[in-house]
Automatic annotation (TrEMBL):
Record PANTHER family: CENP-V_GFA DOMAIN-CONTAINING PROTEIN-RELATED, GFA DOMAIN-CONTAINING PROTEIN
Provenance organism: Tritonibacter scottomollicae
SUPFAM superfamilies in alphabetical order: Mss4-like (SSF51316)
Organism ancestry: Bacteria, Pseudomonadati, Pseudomonadota, Alphaproteobacteria, Rhodobacterales
Protein name per Swiss-Prot or TrEMBL: GFA family protein
InterPro entries xref list: CENP-V/GFA, Mss4-like_sf
Alphabetically ordered keywords of this record: Lyase, Metal-binding, Zinc
Domain spans labelled CENP-V/GFA: 2-117
Transmembrane residue ranges: none
Family the entry assigns: Belongs to the Gfa family.
Length: 132
């Protein structure tokens, strides 16, 4: 069982199995909301302990498409935790339990600020990862 929560504790959830993958996004959107390290979770692995109603969703204007969920009280980024997709990314920062998986890729490296140095050997992509 993997536990997750926001900074103030109003939002708490669990995952009944580990995320499938971890990736780091360097796009300006993820950077602004402080959600660069993402883990992909299956929707049916997420259970709410409390605070689902305390999660707000910001839907950006075009050309940006991804909705951003966050705690209404403390602002902790929660990724796409309210998504109806089968699998979606949430912020790895919101997880309290440690994970065995490691970062698999860096995406939108072209938008990365120079002060952030990539210090692992994971695959790097200028934009979205190329899936082969
Ligand atoms: Zn909170
Ligand atoms: Zn991003």
């Amino acid at each position: 069982m993997i536990e997750g929560s926001c900074c103030c504790g109003a939002v708490q959830f669990t995952l009944d199995r580990p995320p499938s993958m971890m990736g780091t996004c360097h796009c300006s959107r993820c950077r602004k909301v402080g959600a660069n390290v993402l883990v992909f979770v299956a929707r049916d692995s997420v259970s709410w302990v409390q605070g689902r109603e305390n999660v707000a969703r910001y839907q950006p204007e075009a050309p940006y498409t991804y909705g951003r969920c966050f705690c209404r009280t403390c602002g902790t980024s929660l990724g796409e935790i309210l998504s109806e997709e089968e699998s979606f990314p949430i912020s790895a920062h919101a997880l309290d339990s440690d994970l065995e998986i490691r970062n698999r890729f860096h995406e939108f490296v072209a938008e990365k600020p120079s002060w952030y140095e990539i210090c692992d050997a994971a695959e790097q992509y200028d934009g979205h990862p190329v899936t082969t």
